[in-house]
Amino acid sequence: MEKIEGIILKKIDYKESSKIIYLYTNHGLVSVLIHGSNKMKSPYLSLTKPLNLVSLQVSGKDLKVLRDADIINDYRKISNDLEKYTYSTHILEIIYYFSTHEHDHKKLYDFLIKIFDIVEENDNYIPYLNMIELKLLYLLGVNPLFNHCVSCDSTENLAFSVEAGGMCCPSHMVKKSIISALGLLEMQQLYYYDLNKPSNLNINQVYLKEIRLVLDKYYEYHLNFKSNSRKILIGLIGY
């Protein structure tokens, strides 16, 4: 018997009445089979919802089998807010997609828990979810370069280029930046933000839209990733 704790990223049906859940843990991705979880009388009927933070007793090796479980946090305030939940499922989709990548899973897992705790209690939640996406770029090894031109060491008159992966001087800038100078400052604030030293994150909606556009383009260009949840989110928040 083994005890594991994690956030449910995804669930799929297995045979007629069971499910397989995919958990993100401090060791990476773990899949767990839950027998009979689709039955109305199953004690695990509500366990399998994505975003649930759970503690499980499991057995087995490759595909673990659930023996007992507790929900640590169901993040009900997020689940009951359609916009928050959809934006959060966008994050879960990203984490799942890159969950087999070799990086510091413990650091990311601990960070996710802290962020979702903040998101649940905060109406100004979007900057914190954007923060996950920005900091994940560092763990994936494709983080943007902010300090100087990516092609030379110039620090004068820089603008951000998605394709170049960071700042470019006028000589190396191929096309116009999709983020304004003020939007870039806000994005840098999120990238370098320290949760242990909280500060004000009241970012103007205009700049949140710009940051969202940069993140979408950056993930697609450098990591070949495009979120399915974003299509729904655009309909809800307008961008």
Description:
The protein is an alpha+beta fold and 239 residues long. It has two domains: 2-74, OB fold (Dihydrolipoamide Acetyltransferase, E2P), CATH 2.40.50.140; 77-237, de novo design (two linked rop proteins) (Up-down Bundle), CATH 1.20.1440. The protein contains seven helices and seven strands. It has helices at residues 76-79, 82-97, 105-121, 126-139, 181-192, 205-223, 229-237, and strands spanning 2-14, 18-25, 28-34, 53-59, 64-73, 159-161, 166-168. The strands form two sheets. It has a five-stranded mixed beta barrel with strand order 1-2-3-5-4. A hairpin with a 4-residue loop joins strand 4 and strand 5 (64-73). The longest helix is centred in the C-terminal third of the chain and has 19 residues, at 205-223. The mean pLDDT is 95.
CATH homologous superfamily name of the largest domain?
Answer: Recombination protein O, C-terminal domain
CATH topology of the largest domain: de novo design (two linked rop proteins)
For the secondary structure, the number of strands is 7
Q: Briefly note the structural class of the backbone.
A: alpha+beta
CATH architectural group of the largest domain = Up-down Bundle
Helix count from the secondary structure assignment: 7
First-residue to last-residue Cα separation: 46 Å
Overall pLDDT level: 95
Q: How many domains in all? A: 2
The helix content, as a percent range, equals: 25-40%
Spatial strand order of the main sheet: 1-2-3-5-4
The CATH class of the largest domain turns out to be Mainly Alpha
